[in-house]
Predict the structure of ABC transporter ATP-binding protein.
Amino acid sequence: MIHCEGLVKIYKTDDIEVVALQGLNMTVEQGEMMAIIGNSGSGKSTLLNILGGLDRPSAGQAVVGPWNLLKMSKEHLIEYKRKTVGFIWQNNARNLVPYLTATQNVELPMLIMGKADRVYAKQLLAAVGLEHRMGSRLTQLSGGEQQRVAIAIALSNRPSLILADEPTGSVDSSTGEQILDIFRRLNREMGVTIVIVTHDLSVADKVDRVVAIRDGLTSTEWVKRDMDTALANLEDDEESTATAAAPGSRFGARHEEFVVIDRAGRLQIPKTYLDEMNVAGKAVLEFDGKRVIISPPEDSTDSASPIDGGRSKEPD
Ligand SMILES: Nc1ncnc2c1ncn2[C@@H]1O[C@H](COP(=O)(O)OP(=O)(O)OP(=O)(O)O)[C@@H](O)[C@H]1O
């Protein structure tokens, strides 16, 4: 569904250039529900805005279904935004008209496309659990209810892709959980692909895969294990939660962690590892037939240990 390769986005303001995406690679399968996490400024929103057709990439490849986002004409971009993709923001005021009812709000994007389908608008509101609030004006709804209307609006033109930027960011944790459960149901029942950008690590439990972005590049990926494996690992999970500082244990035994290696063989080493190894700028790379071992250069301080956990450089 989504294929990004070597994706670059440079923002130019006066004489300053900010490289927000530095050659990012990412693939999302049709029908997948996945999350993108990363620190503030890592490039998450930039990526989502490009995938949503709200911003143009500077270079690289960004393909969504049959659409090439780098080469698309203005007319095609408008069609793409209307038909293929639905957007949900943290601040849903951007999608909603306060003096209209929930149903009228969902009908609005349909009207812009030509004709409102009231039956479908009501089906969507029922799908997000708002059958009893269809006639309420937006001002009469809670934040969580408004967010559910925003989800129904995003689905109104039957998009194949939903992009959600911090969709649980401004609601309490139980409402956030409800919203993610709605996403999961819509993903299963309607087959819509869902990409969620978030700071909220608890979202990981609700998605198939989590991709971490660091400095404008995908760095690490966690793939949900199948249920049997997850249950079998529940005990380990408790242990790994206790050592949550290590990146590999962040999502416990429910997810398997992979480092992302691009076509050119580049990968990102977590800063904590580099600091601990005392590696900066350059390192020694060895291949022992099974593992690649990265160590500090000979002349750097003694305290450093190699990246494979110290096995190849144990003190005698
Ligand atoms: N319109 C813009 N003009 C100039 N620089 C920008 C613009 N938008 C984003 N940036 C810069 O690009 C980088 C990535 O920003 P982005 O908003 O994608 O990060 P983010 O991971 O979504 O952060 P947050 O979690 O805080 O929303 C940052 O350094 C940011 O300052």
The chain is about 30% helix and 25% strand. The two ends are 53 Å apart (CA to CA). The longest helix spans residues 173-190. Residues 50 and 56 are 6 Å apart (CA to CA).
